[in-house]
Design a protein that fits this description.
Length: 185
C-alpha cells in the first residue's frame, strides 16, 4: 500500500507543476507516504492491542482524570492537522485501566482521518467499554489548520467538544467537578 501512496504523492507533485525528480523533491513522495502511514496508524490498532491487558480490579469509586493529553489528528475534509489537548475522566465501577492506556486510546482514535466531534465520542465510548465505569467525560480543545491556513484564515480560533456519559451526563455536580478540575493548574 505504501507504494500506491508514494505514487499518488508523486502524481500530486506533478499536477502542482513540480518536478518530483528534482533534488529537493526526489525523496518527498516516499517521505510523505511514510508520514501519512504514521499519522493514520490508528487504523492498524484496536482496543485490545492498545490496552495490552492493563485492566485491573479496584475498589476505587472516585473520579479518575487524565488531563492535558496532547493529540494530533488530520481533518478528514482537508487532510490538514488539528492539534489540541484531551481531558478524559471516568468513574470506576470495580476496575481501572493503566494510566498510559487512556493516552493510548486518545492516540489510537486521533491517528485517523477525523472530525473532532467524532473523535471525542469515540474516545468516550472506548473508555466506557473497557472500564464499565459509572460514567465517562471527554473534553477536547483543538486548533484546526484547515481553518487557520485556508478558508476563513482565523489564526486564533479554537474548537471545544465534550461528551458526557452516565453520571457525568445525569449528575450536574459530577459534571461540574470534572469541568472545574480540568481547569485547575
Amino acid at each position: 500500500m505504501s507504494e500506491r501512496i508514494e505514487a499518488a504523492y508523486r502524481r500530486i507533485l506533478q499536477d502542482l507543476g513540480e518536478d518530483p525528480d528534482r533534488e529537493g523533491l526526489k525523496d518527498t513522495p516516499a517521505r510523505a507516504a511514510k508520514a501519512m502511514r504514521f499519522l493514520t496508524k490508528g487504523y492498524q490498532e484496536d482496543l485490545d492491542q492498545v490496552l495490552n491487558g492493563a485492566v485491573f480490579s479496584s475498589d476505587n469509586d472516585e473520579m479518575v482524570i487524565v488531563r492535558n493529553i496532547e493529540l494530533y489528528s488530520l481533518c478528514e475534509h482537508h487532510l490538514l492537522p488539528f492539534i489540541g489537548r484531551a481531558h478524559v475522566a471516568y468513574l470506576p465501577d470495580g476496575k481501572v485501566i493503566g494510566l498510559s492506556k487512556v493516552a493510548r486510546i486518545v492516540d489510537m482514535y486521533a491517528r485517523r482521518l477525523q472530525i473532532q466531534e467524532n473523535l471525542t465520542r469515540q474516545i468516550a465510548l472506548a473508555v466506557q467499554q473497557v472500564t464499565g465505569g459509572k460514567g465517562v467525560a471527554v473534553y477536547i480543545n483543538a486548533r484546526h489548520l484547515c481553518m487557520m491556513m485556508r478558508g476563513v484564515e482565523k489564526q486564533n480560533s479554537e474548537m471545544s467538544t465534550s461528551v458526557m456519559l452516565g453520571d457525568f451526563r445525569e449528575n450536574p455536580k459530577t459534571r461540574n467537578e470534572f469541568l472545574q478540575l480540568i481547569r485547575t493548574p
